[in-house]
């Protein structure tokens, strides 16, 4: 790793810090791969979540096809990297015995011959990868591996940020729905906020349904429990009574007399 690369990397780090969003940061990382790693003709960042494979950034649209082939064929370096937590080097995609179907399709459909991939260690167990490709066989050397690892570290930070932001948005959305459902129960039964949440928690425990799903159903339908979906009674007066104390609430959907 020479002085020019170190200087370029320092400049790139400052650029990445100034990028306006995580998406543009990932796009800049893959551009840096083609700029700094010799004979790298295309680079992309892939996220594997369960059986789903998503292309988050790519310098060439052909890489979208490459990633989709992994999902279609259930074969490719992303799965192996996720299992073994290591870098992946493919000297010739046309003949590599590890993923014969995937490799040959990549050669024929994308014109790529060799690959260098790095696992991104994300915070939620998802398997992200930075993948560098060349149209030449046996294109990457030991120095390219070291340079790629440094670039992958930048992508790993950005990808972890993306996932955390998504988790935060999901958590906020769930809290909003639970708050709305709590308000419905307070209005309908004259409960306190704690009692209203206790009703949803009790139904959740009885029927093995998550609280936020109970809340979402209540907000969408006006009912706390769907009879046909769960096989359980739609009337939950017992749950309200258990949460609110010695009162005589009417079934949900039928407000007690005097209630608005």
Task: Describe the structure in your own words.
- The chain has a 5-stranded antiparallel β-sheet.
- The chain has 260 residues and is α+β, with helices and mostly antiparallel strands.
- The protein is elongated and about 70 Å long.
- The model is unreliable at 226-236 and 246-260 (pLDDT under 50).
- It folds into 2 domains: 3-140, Transcription factor LuxR-like, autoinducer-binding domain (Beta-Lactamase); 168-244, no CATH class.
- The chain has 10 helices and 5 strands; from the N terminus they run ααββααβαββααααα.
- A hairpin with a 2-residue loop joins strand 1 and strand 2 (52-58).
- Helix 6 crosses helix 7 (193-207) and helix 6 packs across helix 8.
């Amino acid at each position: 790793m020479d002085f020019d690369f170190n200087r370029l990397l320092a400049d790139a780090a400052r650029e990445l810090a100034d990028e306006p969003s995580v998406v543009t940061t990932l796009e800049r990382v893959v551009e840096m791969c083609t700029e700094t790693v010799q004979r790298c003709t295309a680079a992309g960042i892939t996220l594997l979540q369960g059986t789903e494979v998503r292309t988050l950034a790519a310098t060439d649209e052909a890489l979208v096809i490459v990633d989709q082939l992994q999902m279609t064929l259930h074969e490719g370096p992303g799965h192996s990297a996720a299992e073994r937590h290591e870098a992946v080097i493919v000297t010739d995609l046309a003949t590599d015995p590890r993923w014969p179907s995937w490799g040959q399709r990549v050669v024929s459909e994308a014109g790529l011959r060799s690959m260098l991939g790095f696992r991104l260690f994300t915070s939620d167990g998802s398997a992200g990868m930075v993948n560098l490709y060349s149209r030449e066989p046996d294109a990457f050397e030991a120095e390219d591996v070291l340079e790629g690892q440094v670039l992958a570290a930048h992508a790993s930070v950005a990808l972890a940020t993306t996932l955390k932001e998504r988790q935060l948005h999901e958590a906020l959305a769930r809290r909003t729905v639970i708050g709305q459902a709590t308000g419905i129960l307070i209005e309908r039964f004259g409960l306190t906020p704690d009692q209203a949440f206790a009703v949803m928690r009790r139904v959740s425990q009885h029927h093995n349904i998550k609280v936020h799903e109970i809340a979402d159903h209540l907000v969408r339908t006006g009912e706390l429990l769907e009879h046909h979906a769960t096989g359980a009674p739609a009337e939950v007066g017992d749950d309200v009574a258990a949460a609110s104390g010695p009162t005589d609430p009417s079934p949900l959907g039928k407000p007690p007399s005097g209630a608005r």
